[in-house]
Fold:
Amino acid sequence: MDERMARKKTFDPQRERGGTTPRYYEVFARKTSDDELAHVGSVEAPNDDLAQVRAWYIYDQHKWREMCVVPTDMIIPVRLGNHSTRIKMA
Structure:
């Protein structure tokens, strides 16, 4: 028997999932160019590419004009002292 035929195929589930460490992403979207970008939910994924796919699959109930995923650990909150603040446009 050929040596290639004798070897068993192996499956690495961590590699197939795109990585070993999950990362959390926040999902933002807008329906039209005039709409504000709004938070629509969150996804967990091992990499940016899979986060995009999961966000599109989970939040496909609308025909979004634009959708963005942002790693949660990359979001910088704006705070005044220990209190969260809201930035208001004039």
Remarks:
- The longest strand covers residues 23-30.
- The chain has three helices and five strands.
- The beta strands are 23-30, 38-45, 66-71, 79-80, 83-84.
- The CA atoms of residues 43 and 55 lie 6 Å apart.
